[in-house]
Task: structure prediction
Amino acid sequence: TTSTLLHAPTQLPREVTNIIAGCHILVYLDAKTLVGDPIETAALKAIHWTFTKDDISIPKPAALTLTDAAAAALASTTADSSSTTTTKPKKSASVRIVQRYHFSSELKRMSTICEVEGGVKSKEMWIFAKGAPEVMKGFYVKESVPDNYEEIYKTYTRMGRRVLGLGCRKMSGHYSSSMTRDSVEKDLHFAGFITFECPLKPDSAQTIQMLNESSHLVSMITGDNTLTACQVAKELQITKKPTLILEPISSPSSSSSSDKQSSEIEAPKAVQWISVDETITKPFDISTITAIAEDYDLCVSGVTLPFLLHGHSSSPSASGLHLVKVFARVSPEQKDEIVTTLKAQGYYTLMAGDGTNDVGALKQAHIGVALLNRPDQPPRPRPSPLSSSIRGADMGRNIPPMSNSSQMKQRKPANIQSPVGASLATPGTGSGAGPSAAARNAARTADMMKALQEMEEDTPLVQLGDASIAAPFTSKSTRVTPIVDILRQGRCTLVTTMQMYKILALNCLVSAYSLSVLYLDGVKLGDTQLTVSGMLIAFCFLFVSRAQPLNKLSKERPERNLFSP
Result:
């Protein structure tokens, strides 16, 4: 069963722990700021290792309690492959990354050359690699791959988990900085799979439900595995019908070529629709995609996306791209191409993303929403009107410079009141004005110190890798609720503007008609009548301008034409 194959992060073999500790893209921008993939940060935390600014991963004291018996117990479950693997590294004291071959969206893998130091000061050079399981299989030594390799990783991807294949190899020769990627990523030994369970945000399902109920087409574009993406889309109610995935048709020649170790991924020659459980298959024909979409939800991977985009020679609008609910294993360039094609079909697009892979699509979309990868922070309390007025009145006064807020907190009130209180004193008040004046000065000084502290704490939220550099809208949290807020505000603005123009046009027509009729009869409106009429029109504009957006998006879209019924 699959449950017996799962093991706690602290009970992993040492070679798997070394791969997690040495094969990642985490870097330090400065002495304290660690940036990179949050999943890799969580993996290091799970195995109780820490990463230093010298590109060295070291175990915490809790990680040193892993016994050889635990590793042997895990190795016994894969006895078939353990006989062919290389010598496992000794119990590591540190793993230092010597060279990185960074992750590529086209290659779907990354690798590193690491120096593994044992407890007796013995150093060994190892090659660690990880990537998509279907891609990594071609880089393993055939004898180290178990027979149920595909069955295992597909089982976990159908659960909605992210699965990565791990491989390693001990270097026999000396390290050279001129080593190519092809020479490094070959003859690897299969070390296992690492699975990540990413829980859904609590408001994601509700937000997507509101979008579906308000006449919007919702699609998922991700770089994850197709099975993982289909399960997540099902949980989010993006897909409600059985899902068909556009997959390449495997042939004996293609299966033999997949075992070859190459840096290039060959494009498939033929594709077909296949269900998630691989029980239903349908031939692919661009002319029948509309009929298939009536009974099934569609998923397209990055490998088979060209068949959908360029399968129809007449125009891109006939590709049926808008019928696809899930795009999986797509590259940043393909995300850009998807949004561009949807725009060419006449759709208004809104794209939400949180990484540099989404920058191109965010720029191409009509509305781009960047989600900062930051934990949600409680809202800062608003200052009172009294303190705001005091800070506004004191702005520009001659206040002595202060080093930082911590030093101001450590000073005594008497030391603060002397110089600052004199600069804040109003005419006619001084040291002899009584204790009430000193108390007021102390209160003003405390408000100023609080304001300075808030200014120091308001550090920029944008960091390296954020998608906000290309998006006109930026959310300070990872929640997708701001998407609904933007649509609510946009619809409210459109409706309000249209109503104002309609009121203005109606007023002009009524005034022109009434004045013409009255002029023919020789009648003029009095001053009081004109004043009342103008005030009524002004109130109409005032009431419409104070309109607030609805809490829930309506199914009916607002009219975009001024002369619509």
